[in-house]
## 1
Amino acid sequence: MSERASDQAVKNISRVLQAIAVAARSSGRDPQSVRLLLATKTVPAERIATVLEGVRGLADANILLGENRVQELVAKAPTFAQFSHQVHFIGTLQRNKINHVLANADCIETVSSVGQAEQVAQRVPTGAAPFEVFLQVNVSGEETKSGCSPQEAIEVATQVVSLPQLRLRGFMTIGLRSNVEKDVRAGYAQLRELRDSFVRRRIAGAEYAKELSMGMSNDFEWAIAEGATIVRIGSAIFGDRA
Ligand SMILES: *Cc1c(COP(=O)(O)O)cnc(C)c1O
């Protein structure tokens, strides 16, 4: 990938950070309450490093890295380790690869069931700090998407917070694939309502579960209007994936 392409990604990050701030302010939110997760899948490690150098000092704490394939996560880990950004796993969690994810990520956003949460919990080393997870919820109902159903989300979250090896940080969803604003936003509003009712339950651990990871390149402004605290953006920054 050329220097020029990386330069463009640096500009795109500033542009997206500004768009995030505008979207946050227009719904009366603090721009600092929304973090930008760079979805770096298929972007070569050297290019990611160049881009991260280019944005060093610019909103460092508000920029996260996200990978959705374990093999890529492992391969890029040495590059990511040169920077202070948190690394989130955002892909389908396979039982036999959980150890690799635990070793190379700071958080798993895609826990979808109690069984998966238990599998992760079992692999957290004794004495280690609780590992941060999100519960993925399928708000769109599209069959191709992972995540528990909205109907079971509160019960699953309740079980997850009972596992001492995990810390539930919030809820994640992949939104409806649609250009109709009200349909897309309805799903994001539903995730926010789930989060609100879970946090209100006042069970031990629920107070940490305030994050909402929702919104991608095409709809992050709508997600922010519905309360997103993390938007996951790939193509609007790195260009279309091959
Ligand atoms: C790739 C990916 C994104 C980013 O998608 P873009 O449309 O390129 O912004 C967000 N979330 C997940 C889980 C992804 O795999």
## 2
Amino acid sequence: MYVIRARSESIFMDIPFTNLRAQFLSIEQEVTAAVTAAMRRCDYVLGEDVAAFEEEFGKFVGTKYALGVASGVEALRLALVALDIGAGAEVIVPANTFIATVLAVEASGAHPVVVDCTPDTYGLSPELVERAVTGRTRAIIPVHLMGQACDMDQILRIAETHGLRVIEDAAQAHGATWQGRTCGSIGDIGCFSFYPSKNLGACGDGGMVTTNSDQVARLVRQFRHYGQSAEYEHVVPGWNSRLDTIQAAVLRVKLRHLPEWNAARGRCAELYFQFLDEVPEIALPVTAAANTHVYHRFVIQTERRDGLRAHLAAAGVETGVHYPSPVHMQKALKHLGHSRGSFPVAEALSGRMLSLPIYPELGIREVISICTAIREYFGHPWDAHSDHPAESPQPI
Ligand SMILES: *Cc1c(COP(=O)(O)O)cnc(C)c1O
């Protein structure tokens, strides 16, 4: 339950940054029935629901194959392994991403080459990618950050020119499209995470590799399952990196709701655009013309980020920062030899970006409450001449 308390003229509520409970409650019966059915079958590892979910997710993304794996980071590592990219190879990754993208490259044995991002859409900067290509470069990993695709026109062109593979990190972009093509079907391989808070999230960990390549599909199938080609025939040095049947059962239910959930995120975004339009101190998200955005995050930029964040917290609104430190500033990646100043765009963004709550269950009253607090902070209360949104709420 939200605690509702009055404050000046407006109503403020405690609004969490994510609300997984609300989502679960909306589909509780479907999920528990699916999980119970899987448990009764007892096919816990690579069971019926895994095969069915792979089929359904492949259709959703538009690839011939989809292979369920243990997590998003494992999807990325297995993609590299299946392409025989390891020691001696270089792989281009963005500075502004969740660290898993870079750690997957390290785990493969290849060398991550970090590149800065675009200041408004947060994707890999194509000009900088081009400059980072060397004789050892084997692949580019564009991360479709926040819910929209990178500039894939340019990235595909660079890859083609230099004979590189493209592995899409679509962990934040389930259902997003670029030129009408679904993320995860654009490059050679797509990698997804089903971490609970993603647009499509499991009740635990999970991931998926998508591809049209027969060879990649065969190798990922083998590498995720101890390198087996048939029972107790181990043809490659694989590992255990499988998607659980119970998670697949949950994900099958949730995949059916994903289009409606992504649409609801889009409606929340529209409301933010409408209500924050006249606040000059903040920059609202920019969607590239070729893209449909699935708003995994609704990220605004402001010079006064920390003050705004504290003000929202005091008003009961939880926010996030993605990410407070670019990957090259993390201690775990110190050996890459970068320092402050290496990737100025990502560094500047890390001090300006603020992620506002966005999820399918977020209601119009909550968005109004958040926007009221933001406008209050910057000294732009609702204009008496413009309609206060509470007067004419549009259902979302
Ligand atoms: C969540 C995420 C991952 C890692 O996914 P896990 O399932 O947690 O391993 C990788 N890349 C990006 C961009 C992510 O957001």
